[in-house]
Amino acid sequence: MEGIVVLEANKRDIADVFAAFMDDIEKVGDATVGYQPRKVNKMLLVEEAGQVLGSDGKQKENAIRLPQLLDEAYRKGWCIWLSAQHPSSIAPNKEVSVQLLKKLKNRIIMAQTTEVDTIVEVLKQEKPFTPEDESYLRSTVGELATGDAICRGVELSPNEVRLPLIGVTIRRLDVPDLS
To answer: Most exposed among 18, 92, 126, 133, judged by the fewest C-beta atoms under 10 Å?
Structure first.
């Protein structure tokens, strides 16, 4: 299948649908072999990730399985992007939440004041993350306006290097009326 596919499932089934996606990604062979540069040709974007990951039943199973899948997905040509309002919503407890957040390489942090300690805990385990970075994050994150964010990315070649925190403004996309 090529192009963009949008799937919206009802809330009751969404955790099972996500588990099926994980099963399918696990079955795929590696997109590259040996020391060839990795190629990402598929992306799974999960909006409101707290509905497929969390602390109960299938959501909890998904949250516990996902860190291992993230280790494999990149080799298989997959990028998995999670969007969630609160880091705590994607795991059954803080320990699993921190473990999962550590596996996610690129981050966009929007207005978030209640769980900044969890975000700092994750970023402190990465190099470089200086006391100045922590101060910047703590002083900025609570003041972010709609459309503003703090980003942290990863440069992949030749070795994985964490890029510095940067503040950005995300422009609203004006979609023309086609009617």
So the answer is: 126
Determine contact, residues 109/141, Cβ cutoff 8 Å.
yes
Report the SS3 class of residue 169.
strand
Q: What are the C-alpha distances in Å from 83 to residues 36, 139, 148?
A: 30, 23, 15
Query: Is the pTM higher than 0.90?
Result: no
Per residue in 152-177, pLDDT (tens digit) is: 888 876 677 888 888 888 887 787 78
pLDDT tens, position by position, 73-116: 988 999 898 988 888 888 998 888 888 888 887 888 887 778 88
Torsion of CA 8, 14, 17, 19, to 10 degrees: 140
List the chain domain ranges: 1-104, 106-119+128-179
Measured distance CA(36)–CA(47) in Å, rounded = 31
Q: Which residue has the tokens 């957040």?
A: 101
Q: Round to whole Å and give the CA distance between 133 and 170.
A: 21
What one-letter code names the amino acid at 137? L
